[in-house]
Structures
1.
Amino acid sequence: MPSRAATISRSRHGLITTVVCLALAAVVAAMASLNVGLPDIARDTHASQTQLVWVIDAYSLAFAALLLPGGGIGDRHGRRVALLVGLLIFGGGSALAMTVGSASELIVLRALLGVGAALVMPATLSTITSTFPVEKRARAVSIWAAVAGGAAVLGLLASGALLAGFSWRSIFALNVVISAVAFVGTLRYVPESADPHAPRLDLAGALIAVLGLVALVFSVIEAPTYGWLAARTVIGLVLAVALIAAFVAWELRHPTPPLDPRVFRQRTLSAGSMSILIQFFAFYGYTFIILQYLQLVRGDSRYSRPCRCCRWPRR
């Protein structure tokens, strides 16, 4: 008798790939798509420049900090379940974000979206690798990687098209629609899969990693407001370095670490990771600045006027 993976690949592998890539595109695009609407968000919510940075980075921070435990939850308790729960959180949070009236509320909901994304992204890839036969797996993973690489750009273009006729809230409406379609597709086409031999979740390591990343990002974002040499900035950066070092030490001693630091001894892996880091750092930093410049300084949007003092409106 053919294996379950072979049966699935013959009958539904195309639909499974479409559904998981749609879910992947939604969470990756959300990292950049809101950049286009920052000028309108600033006017509607009276957000400061620091708050606008948090609107963007709260999502990425929660996404990155919870990615490893999110993947572990999917492996241990079911990738389909993790994907469904993640889409529900992502779509529900986007629906709530359409109703907010303050920057603080938007920041909290963006962080909530990041929690959902941390469940969705690893579940999409592990669904492919666990349910597709070897001869179909390489092609599906290649499609997955292409979507992961190009979704951010597509998100910017889609957001720009929406803002030509609607408010910034329409960006979250698009998230709701995509999440709903992916949710229904997951229920209908994506099979459940789990690893019965998956190790226990490394809760201590995950907590250390989350605290380290939060301390680092918080210190960097708040530094322009309080000063790079201010006590809270220096203490925060020192604490972040100490926590990240503690995470590495913990993972080195853990019997089944979710992220083994020893793998970075491979030069090709380290070089590739550093290359991706530099590319993403440049791309997301550039889009955050240039889209504000084009709309507020140059006045290239018909909904934006040039800013006289080159500053955001204050509270």
2.
Amino acid sequence: MPLDLGATVLTGIHVTAYERLRAHLGLPDRHEIQILDVLQQLAVVDEDMRERLKVDVREVAPRSSATYQIEIRDGGDYTYFYDEWGIGWRKPKSGGLYYDMFDNPLRDAQTFADIDAHHWPDPVDQARLTGLGERARQAAVVEEQGVALGGLCAGILEMAAWLRGFENYYLDLAANQKLLGYLMDKVLELKLAYWEKALAEVGDLADIVEEADDFAGQSGMLISPATYRTLVKPRHKKLFDVLHARSPAKIFFHSCGAIRPAIPDLIDIGLDILNPVQVSAAGMDSAGLKRDFGRELTFWGGGVDTQRVLGSGTPQQVREDVKRRIEDLAPGGGFVFAAVHNIQPNVPPENITAMWESLQEYGTYPIGTSACV
């Protein structure tokens, strides 16, 4: 059964947990762990760790344009920076684990012209694309790894929320969908420009292309299914149609939380792979998801409940949860093992090794029976 750890910024490991895991496994001390994703403080999974855990997938992706350099600044109790979209992020110096959003560049936008006037990043900056093809060929041909081709940014709807700020975003959803739609179309335009160039660089070497949009919470969707279908789904469809037309790669789509009401809509517009499979959210029981959607979808994630088990459970509870998820999601194929979202800093290394050992024990085909074709 394939294993992913660190092949996307949605299936990674926090630098704190990673440092402890390296020490626990007796791997050499890395005095300066490389950071894969600044916001989430995810570690780059080193080659010795990849070999030790038999990781099967490698990401090929720019984190941002190489011509835009993040500058970490001192803000008193915080360190902070602005990304290439103009969004401000900060992390407490004392006890801070992640960078949280604090400034939204389009919070005062009232017209289409205000949106047009924003300083937008260049999605096809050659510095962003340099080396993508070579890295994909190295991973696919030389290393015989699965290739995950990363995208430009967060989701269409998500970026609109980040650029506007959540208060304005929700007001827009209720009372100004024309402005919000225009902003979403701008993000979509940049995404499509990026994918055209990135896919041309990589060709047919990519196994998956990564996209995302978070619009659900713990107990339900954050927007109504009706709003999703009228406002967001047509834009997702346009994006998915272009990806399928330009590449044989499967579409990997990340959406956290209780996303079940929208799963049939996502399948309808061409979704291939769902991540993170948040089994602790309402309606996201792993057995039910496999039963109802296993013919159409691959599940990438859901291998262990990160929220309720991996961080706070015992190693034995981790083993039991991994066994359950494999039994639920793996029969008939269509399952790539990863934790539910990134491994967080509170996760003990003993629980990570229990997860991995259980995968080795139970993650060998054939596994039970399934309605999957």
